[in-house]
Amino acid sequence: MQKLTNKEEEIMHILWKLEKAFVKDVMAAITEDQPHYNTLSTIIRNLEEKGYVSHQAYGNTHQYYPIITKEKYRKAFMNNAIENYFNNSYKSMVSFFAEEEKISAEELREILDIIEKKK
C-alpha cells in the first residue's frame, strides 16, 4: 500500500465520511487551505492511480468512492509506524505514550483488561 501525502490522507478521510462524492462535494467538505478545483481533481485522480479510490462516470463527471477501508488503511499505517519508529515493539510504543503523558494508568488497565479477556 503506497504512502499518502497529508493532503491525500485528508481527502481520504472526507471520502470515507461521505462514502461517495463528486469533486465539488469534497471541495465543500474542506474547511482549511482549500485547494483549487483542478488541484483537488488531480489529487483525487492520484488516489485512484494509487488504488485507494475508484469512480462511477456520469457523462463528463465522476463520482468517487473509496475502495480501501479506513480500517485497512489504519492497520497498514499503524504497522508501518510501529515498524519504523518503535523497532516493531508495541511495548516501546505504549511506553512512548506513557512517557509523553498521552495515556493514563486507567487507560492502560483498560487495555490490560481487553488483553486478558481475549485469552
UniProtKB/TrEMBL annotation:
<dbReference type="InterPro" id="IPR036388">
    <property type="entry name" value="WH-like_DNA-bd_sf"/>
</dbReference>
<protein>
    <submittedName>
        <fullName>Transcriptional regulator</fullName>
    </submittedName>
</protein>
<dbReference type="Pfam" id="PF03965">
    <property type="entry name" value="Penicillinase_R"/>
</dbReference>
<keyword id="KW-0805">Transcription regulation</keyword>
<keyword id="KW-0804">Transcription</keyword>
<dbReference type="InterPro" id="IPR005650">
    <property type="entry name" value="BlaI_family"/>
</dbReference>
<comment type="similarity">
    <text>Belongs to the BlaI transcriptional regulatory family.</text>
</comment>
<dbReference type="GO" id="GO:0045892">
    <property type="term" value="P:negative regulation of DNA-templated transcription"/>
</dbReference>
<dbReference type="GO" id="GO:0003677">
    <property type="term" value="F:DNA binding"/>
</dbReference>
<dbReference type="InterPro" id="IPR036390">
    <property type="entry name" value="WH_DNA-bd_sf"/>
</dbReference>
<keyword id="KW-0238">DNA-binding</keyword>
